[in-house]
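In the lab's daily routine, each protein ends up as an entry in a very long ledger. A line of letters takes care of the sequence, but it says nothing directly about the fold. The fold becomes a row of whole numbers, each drawn from a learned catalogue of backbone shapes. The protein below has been through that process, and both of its lines are reproduced in full:
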Amino acid sequence: MFKALSTTFSSQLAAYPLPEELQRTIETFLDSHIHLDDHDSQRLYEDLRTIYDKYVANNGDKLCPFISVLRQLSPVIRSRDRLHEWWVTVVRPVIDSVGYKRDAVEEAREFLLSIMVFDPEEDTSRERTATSKYFTERLIEAYLARTRIPSGAEENAVSPEDDFVAHELDNILVAFGRKMPKVSKPAVSLALQRN
């Protein structure tokens, strides 16, 4: 799969939506590696990181297709630490600022929902629960940072950028709350208590 991803992202323009051939390669990889062990998951992370650093980091046009790949591969990335690296490097900058294309924002949103929403009955190790809680808290922290209450002074007023980003973050939180109502309430309450 690394070869297919390298070929796609090394080209002058990485297409979005992803080419059908790459989609099939990803699906085949997922079908045969759904129970990827931690060592192989780390190797996948390193391969993705190499592609990101070499072809995507300095080319905004390739960001959306790359986030699409991350979203599709999120079931086998698994580790909260590896997912956190993608949160810091790619996802938060896209959803917590303005100026990104709508498709990139939507892919980042779907990536987050793919790691936050899960079937509690299938989470016997509680790993998905912990990961979901962690990213719910990160989202709430970002949302609260953008929605500070103005004290009346002009310099403390909510900027149009803050208002726009807060609305985008709110949409993600609402989508998560609708899909995971029983799980999301404790995580939201805990995050709000911290602030």
User: Anything to note?
Assistant: The chain has a mean pLDDT of 90. The two ends are 43 Å apart (CA to CA). Residues 1-116 form one domain.
